[in-house]
Design brief:
- The chain is α/β, with parallel strands linked by helices and 346 residues long.
- It has 2 domains: 200 residues, Medium-chain alcohol dehydrogenases, catalytic domain (Quinone Oxidoreductase, Chain A, domain 1, Alpha-Beta Complex), CATH 3.90.180; 135 residues, Rossmann fold.
- 25% of the residues lie in helices and 25% in strands.
- It contains 11 helices and 18 strands.
- The strands form 4 sheets. Strands 3, 5, 6, 9, 10, 17 and 18 form a 7-stranded mixed beta sheet that branches.
- The longest helix has 12 residues.
- The chain is globular.
Length: 346
């Protein structure tokens, strides 16, 4: 089968022919319906060797959904053809974090040597994907797995970030979403679905701001000179209770700090490598700066429930596997409408 693999650090990924894996004991083979193309993949391609403890080659694609194709010995409760979402962070399954479904914070991650499929192990940018544990699969019900693939990361990551700050998002509060692309347009929808907060979206792209308004943003602001003042004016000079930075560059982190209020959360999700110089007065009093990672399996169940209820829906552009490089090129130039999803099986 064809698989789009990262074969070496700081080298372009390659389309390669590999064997279809055979599921062993406790394992499940899925026929891939959709594999989301994430901006973090671009960082992964460009990082020098040693930045993360992963060992190429491996197939890219850590945001996956598909249909059960075959199961290994000991797997029960899954039927061939059943649509499933793949929970992305793969932990040991035995530590305290994993026992509470937070495999994103597995205590034995260093021993495992991979973060999941597409992040050290083979992911979903291939016709088939081997999932090592049946516990990592969640039923999709009537959701189309092609369009549901982004729910496993582009929705789960902001959901996890927003949920930890829900106690701040009371009536009259404000949440600022910096970066309204793949994660950002989902963050806007999630805020609308589970909180009463007013939502302000920030992006350099007029098209992404248009999408943010379509999916529920109350206000939109272009970054640059005057952006912080504009957001301050929208919050009566107080600032926002929650600022989610989906970019993570120096400029966006600085803007997030400027528009946060006292006792707020400044949450950096993006991986653009920005730095923040911490000092007295760099943040308002009792503001918290945090870097969350992905989300728990229980939170993914909640995300899927929101999607089935029609409360959230990824905006998806589909690409066949042989056009995966076009998807990443569109991502680099910022012209995607929502999330690119690679569909290896049509």
């Amino acid at each position: 089968m064809k698989a789009y693999q990262l074969t070496a650090w700081q080298s372009p990924p390659e389309m390669r022919e590999v064997d279809v894996p055979e599921p062993g004991v406790g394992q499940v083979l899925i026929k891939v319906a959709g594999a989301g193309a994430c901006h973090s993949d671009l960082h992964l391609m460009e990082w020098p060797e040693g930045t993360v403890d992963l060992d190429p080659p491996f197939t890219l694609g850590h945001e996956n959904a598909g249909w059960v194709e075959a199961v290994g010995a000991g797997v029960e409760g899954l039927e061939q053809g059943e649509p499933v979402a793949v929970y992305g962070p793969w932990g040991c399954g035995r530590c305290r974090a994993c026992r509470r479904s937070a495999e994103n914070y597995c205590e034995r991650q260093a021993e495992i040597g991979a973060f999941g499929g597409g992040l050290g192990l083979d992911g979903g940018m291939a016709e088939y994907m081997l999932v090592p544990y049946a516990r990592l699969l969640l039923p999709l019900g009537d959701l189309d797995p092609r369009d549901a693939a982004p729910l496993t990361d582009a929705a789960l990551t902001p959901y996890h970030a927003i949920k930890r700050s829900l106690h701040l998002l009371i009536p009259g509060s404000t949440a600022v979403v910096i970066g309204a692309g793949g994660l950002g347009h989902m963050a806007v929808q999630i805020l609308r679905a589970i909180s009463p907060a007013r939502v302000i979206a920030v992006d350099i792209s007029a098209e992404k701001l248009r999408l943010a308004r379509e999916v529920g943003a109350d206000e939109t602001v272009e970054p640059g000179e005057g952006a912080a003042e504009a957001i301050r004016e929208l919050t009566a000079g107080l600032g926002a209770e929650l600022v989610i930075d989906n970019v993570g560059a120096d400029e966006t982190i600085a803007l997030a700090a400027q528009v946060a209020r006292f006792e707020s959360h400044v949450t950096v999700v993006g991986l653009a490598g920005g730095k923040f110089e911490f000092a007295f007065g760099a943040l308002p009093f009792d503001a918290q700066l945090t870097i969350p990672y992905w989300g728990t399996a229980i939170e993914l169940i909640e995300v899927l429930d929101l999607a089935r209820a029609g409360k959230i829906a990824p905006h998806v552009e589909r690409f066949p596997l042989d056009r995966v490089e076009d998807a990443y090129a569109r991502m680099r130039e910022g012209s995607l409408d929502g999330r690119a999803v690679i569909c290896p099986n049509g």
